[in-house]
Amino acid sequence: MSFANFMGKSIGFAGYVLQYACVTHCAFEYIGDFVMCSGPSMEPTLQTNNILFTEHITPRLQRLQRGDIIIAKCPSNPNQNICKRITGLPGDKMRGQLLRSQIVPRGHVWLEGDNSKPPNPSIN
User: Fold this and answer.
1) 41, 93, 117, 122: which one is catalytic?
2) Which InterPro entries match (predicted)?
3) Rounded CA gap, 113 and 86, in Å?
4) Catalytic residue flag (residue 38)
């Protein structure tokens, strides 16, 4: 096998790898992704170590609704994702920490876990 032949095959293989990587990236970015749950906040609906397929098409085609389960960035640690249920939409009056009421601002939703015991709700 000559060097030119070897280089030609190597470049062809690299092209296939690049195409596969691009298709895979687009699929995970625009169609859906897999997420592993951890923590008790969504019990009993979701358990720790459940693997979810999150699809990315619906949020682009229709509005989020009360009751939807979403994956969002954690407000206290943006490097971490959280899995919560939408319980309030913009303009809704929600009961926050210390029983104070808050209005959900425009462009935000109120998120809570299904487990009534653990962490605090958040506006995202």
Assistant:
1) 41
2) LexA/Signal_pep-like_sf, Mito_IMP1_subunit, Pept_S26A_signal_pept_1, Peptidase_S26
3) 9
4) no
How many CB atoms sit inside 10 A of residue 124's CB?
15
122 a catalytic residue = no
Cβ–Cβ < 8 Å for 112, 92: no
pTM of the model: 0.73
Contacts of 72 (CB under 8 A, 6+ apart): 81, 82, 84, 111, 124
- Share of the chain residues as helix, strand and coil, in percent rounded to the nearest 5: 30, 25, 45
* Tens digit of each residue's pLDDT (9 = 90 or more) over 79-106: 999 999 999 999 999 987 777 889 999 9
- If pLDDT is split at 50, 70 and 90, which confidence band does 45 have? very high
Answer for the pair 37, 83: CB distance below 8 angstroms, yes or no: yes
Active-site choice (10, 38, 76, 84): 84
For residue 35, how far is the Cα from the chain centroid?
A: 8
